[in-house]
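Hi X.,

You mentioned you wanted examples for the new student's onboarding notes, showing what a folding record looks like when two proteins sit in one file. Here is a clean example. The first protein comes first, with its sequence line followed by its structure tokens.
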Amino acid sequence: MAKPTTPAQRRIIAAADPVTGRLTGTEAQLAALVRLRLAFRHPRPPHAYFLTPAGHRVRDEPQGAAPETAPVEPVPGVFAARTGTEEFPSGGAGPARAREVRDAWLGLVEIRRMTNADGDRERPCGWERTHLVQAAAIALEAAGRVPAEPGREGYRVAVTPQPDAVEVREPTAEGVRACGAVLERAGWQVSEHGDARTAARYVLASPRRS
């Protein structure tokens, strides 16, 4: 049985960068998380500490969270991938949002380099495989695709019955194909399908493994 984390350790994990998983704390605190296999120390200077996939799972565990059916409003100042399924308007756009999305995408590319055994930047990393919807949304928005919002059409990324795939829809077939092309360039396997009930087109996408 894994050793439980302390409240102080959970606070450090919760405060990790939402995209890269970079940790902040004392050397002793971070070394303790490494021993628990919840963090790893990057071998290159400045030897920063990052969450492992197990650490990300600990961070994502609900800690007295509200019921899943309760809508959650965006938290100001905290980066969140826009999936196009949010119940509230994003409230942020323009150059500031573009910089945030660019930094999030570059952070994912850096995680790929650090955590893929061969340093491959083209193949999705473990974080992307455990956060499929958010990872696909970051790739889409970073490439200039626009998420749907109340009163605005755009892409929508949603979970599917397949544990390793997401569904991406856009109002037009051209938009669907454009989203598929973006995800292919970002290292995802993509296939296009038609909805049997509505004839609308959509793509299924899953992170490439090789």
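Then the second protein repeats the pattern, sequence line and then tokens:
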Amino acid sequence: MKHSRVELLSSGLKSPNCRLEALRLKSCWLSEISCSALISALKSNIHLRHLNLSGNALQDSGVELLRDLLESPDCRLETLRLRNCSLSEINCSALASALKSNIHLRELDLRENYLQDSDVKLLSDLRESPDSRLEALRIGGKTTRANIQKTWL
């Protein structure tokens, strides 16, 4: 997606009149600059509940920005899809860190990222934490779901 288009989208997302609840930017070739502008705009949008950035090579800087978004007290995201985003071990640690403080996220999709066993364990342990509200974690072709007691189904 061209940077000028992301700037236009970002300005719309920053508008106090914006009530967008779902944003799907799957395989849009987001650049580092575009990702930065987008995430910055999303920080000011309190209505967004579902975000799909699948198929974009977010790189470490993009995931760091997402971490900042997820850690924001105004973030109300319930679903985050990062399928096939070339996530690294560093990225998973940043996401896990952010999810510890996010009380709204219910579903996280990280399939097709070829995560290491340590990444999977870190995220699975987080999902099992009593403080986590994460109900569905999709990793490596598997979906783990939690019921109210956070037990494996």
